[in-house]
Amino acid sequence: MADKLTATMQIAKQVYSLAQEQNDAALMTGAYRALAITLFYLGDFEAARQHAIRGVRIWRSGGVQSHSADIDMAVVGCLCHEAVSEWHLGEIASSQATMAEAISLAKELNDMHALAQALYFAAILGQYERNPAEVERCASDLIELATRQNFALWLAGGEVFRGWARSARVEAEGIALIEHGIADWLATGATLVVPYYLALKAEGLHLADRSSEALEAISEAEALVERSEERWWYAGLHRLRGVFLTAIGAKESKIEASFCEAIRIAREQKSVSLEKRAEATYAEYRRQKASGSGGRGFRLPLW
């Protein structure tokens, strides 16, 4: 949550090695979760899904006994990261079914921390699909649960998603809610996911006709990515940069470079969904430019 992801990966590999030595099913499930989470944030969605699936498979085989030190059941985390990885790989229906299973299992296990995690990732999936109503529903459930259980990190995440849902409807308080959520997230000591939150803030700023400020948020996010190596939303940052540069009438070369970089990164990461989104936005940019309908500083669809 607070260091470079290469350092995180070293620890995850150590966890995996120790779990193998112990030959303990619960520890192996946790080890696969550690690998899946780290690989996901690094932007290796295919490998993340495979490790998550292996963790779930161990759980389903039976014989997994939780340990007293566990803060939640690792299988729920595996399901969450399987779901979001599936979305990137273009398997939308499967991702939604997997996420529903994660929420259902957390409730069945009466594991409040796991449930908070599942609601958080359900909100991410809803944002991926540009569904403000679903995101607000998940965020409200998450905020209520996190407040009751005193989960500071999940509460901050819920605030960010509530803000995004409001800003997507161009409601005035949306951006302020996102900013408050980011501040609360950072107050826990966590820096992971902040580039993505800044992208959500940038979207709200753009919808409020503040595209220059939106570009500043994207630049801040990209600087954080360089330090943390967190690349799961990197293609999305470049696509948004292209949208905002178009809105302010920037040089064509800069706009083209942003969209091409978004497509390149998405292809490299095998994120079918982000590749399609970047290609569609780029195609619309070229269409409007060719038709001359927008002129200098025309607007592209944000979603």
Salient structural properties:
single chain, 303 residues, mainly alpha, 14 helices, globular
List the helices and strands and how they pair.
Blueprint: H1 5-22, H2 25-42, H3 45-60, H4 74-88, H5 92-108, H6 112-128, H7 132-149, H8 152-168, H9 174-187, H10 194-207, H11 211-228, H12 234-247, H13 252-269, H14 272-291
Helix pairs in contact: 1-2, 2-3, 2-4, 3-4, 4-5, 4-6, 5-6, 6-7, 6-8, 7-8, 8-9, 8-10, 9-10, 10-11, 10-12, 11-12, 12-13, 12-14, 13-14
Descriptive account of the structure:
This protein has helices spanning 5-22, 25-42, 45-60, 74-88, 92-108, 112-128, 132-149, 152-168, 174-187, 194-207, 211-228, 234-247, 252-269, 272-291. It is mostly helical and 303 residues long. The model has no long low-confidence stretch (mean pLDDT 94).
Reading the helices and strands in chain order gives: HHHHHHHHHHHHHH
State the separation between the terminal residues, measured CA to CA.
Answer: 29 Å
Helix percent band:
over 70%
Indicate the structural class.
Answer: mainly alpha
- So what's the overall shape? globular
**Given the structure, what is the number of helices?**
14
Largest sheet: none
Unreliable residue stretches: none
Number of strands: 0
Question: C-alpha Rg, in Å?
Answer: 20 Å
Tell me, rounded to a whole number, the average pLDDT: 94
- Tell me the β content: under 5%
